[in-house]
Design goal:
Layout (H helix, E strand, L loop, with lengths): L3 E5 L3 H14 L4 E5 L2 H10 L4 E5 L7 H9 L9 E5 L5 H10 L3 E4 L4 H15 L1
């Protein structure tokens, strides 16, 4: 079964860079993108991804709140989530994200090698 990754972020340049980096790491990885919580919820209604990469600062909802919403869904509660943020980088922000159910937290700019290792670990752990 191919790996599917949903990136939820409203930064077009970051999405393109991240998408390219992930595709270089694995030809089998299929990446989909949502630029808002609403778009992400629509995408999640269609398909359950292997993993979600989620920005904390979305235009229509705080990322931690979005994570709480999907953790309430029986279909989505076990999908690993990696938070990313350029602004929320304090230990309290990380703690809030982890308490909400995130598997990891990365600050922008992201080291694609470290992200890939964590992503693989979380997906393999879920199996």
């Amino acid at each position: 079964m191919p790996m599917t990754i949903l990136i939820v972020d409203d930064d077009k340049n970051f999405i393109e860079t991240l998408e390219d980096g992930l595709k270089l790491k694995s030809a089998e990885a299929r990446v989909t993108v949502a630029k808002s919580a609403r778009e992400a919820l629509d995408a999640l209604a269609e398909e359950v991804p292997s993993l979600i990469i989620l920005d904390i600062q979305l235009p229509d909802m705080h990322g931690v709140e979005f994570l709480r919403v999907i953790r309430e869904s029986a279909r989505l509660k076990k999908v690993p989530v990696i938070f990313i943020s350029a602004k929320y980088t304090e230990p309290a922000d990380r703690s809030e994200a982890m308490l909400a159910g995130a598997g990891a937290f990365f600050s922008k700019p992201i080291d694609i090698e470290e992200l890939w290792k964590e992503l693989r670990y979380l997906i393999d752990k879920k199996k």
